[in-house]
Amino acid sequence: MKFGLKVNPGTWTEARRWADIAQDAGFDSLWTGDNLRNARDPRVPVHDGPAIIAGWAATTARIRIGLLIANMIYRRPTVLAKQAVTMDHISDGRFELGVGSGLWPADHAMAGVPVWSAQERADRFAEFVATVDRLRSGDAQDHAGGHYPYEGAALSPAPIQRRIPLIVAANGPRALAVAADHADSWVTFTGTAEEQDFHEATLTRIRTLDQRTADRGRPPVRKVLLAYGSISPWSSADAFSRLVDRYRAIGFDEIICYAPKPAERAVFDKVARRLTDLQ
């Protein structure tokens, strides 16, 4: 099992501090989000995700870094692919790219984009991810898609990694099909579901995802859990161990946790001391 830490820093000082903590504790990966504002409270400071990643890329050495997840609401796939290549170079080949369909009305409002229907969101997501997948593979042919057409794409320089790892966030059937077609990794989180309900639904999603990748002649994708919502990783060190055992047993390869709040820091420190054993 690998472990990642997700940080949505309000200052660069905070971003650097958590990067140091994550590396010193032995975390495998370090992540930030991609939102223009906090969805619930605009007073909460939020920085641009790719800019934070670029800063981490230049100031860390070992740890994998990634965007979890790039928000399709206000990103074009060609621009995102170019950003990904740049971050891959700055990090010397340690970058991973997560892609999601977005959801929050606040993101739509800030981007000046009407809130999409479920059908349009699914259609856009399929085209967006397929385009990013082609571009990361070096295919710069013109694309005449319904939502994200482009001409004359330039992919120079090539990324350091042969193919920048692509993580697809998916829960619904159409999004899972997109992950089966294009993803190296799949990420999921509880959202508003209770943990037991999520666990049961996730078993079904894993079986569906594995069957679809097999049908396409692709190897199983790496499975990533974002411990969020009804999953509380920092309630106690023993609870963290049980979380690892519970989700390792159903096939997860990595658990990513949000950085702890001040009241959770003591538990985080205990877990960090056990991290090697849990891996």
Overview of the structural elements:
- The chain has helices at 12-25, 49-59, 77-90, 105-111, 118-136, 173-182, 195-215, 237-248, 265-278, and strands at 2-6, 29-32, 64-71, 95-100, 166-169, 185-188, 222-227, 254-258.
- With 279 residues, the protein is of the alpha/beta class.
- The protein has one domain: TIM Barrel (Alpha-Beta Barrel), CATH 3.20.20.
- An eight-stranded parallel barrel has the order 1-2-3-4-5-6-7-8, surrounded by six helices.
- β5, α6 (173-182) and β6 (185-188) form a beta-alpha-beta unit.
- It starts with a strand and ends with a helix.
State the secondary-structure class. alpha/beta
Q: Strand content of the residues, in percent?
A: 15-25%
Strand order of the largest sheet: 1-2-3-4-5-6-7-8
**Number of E-state strands:** 8
Per CATH, what is the topology?
TIM Barrel
CATH uppermost class: Alpha Beta
CATH architecture descriptor text: Alpha-Beta Barrel
Q: How many domains?
A: 1
Protein name: LLM class flavin-dependent oxidoreductase
GO biological process, one term: alkanesulfonate catabolic process
GO molecular function: alkanesulfonate monooxygenase activity
Domain Luciferase-like: 10-244
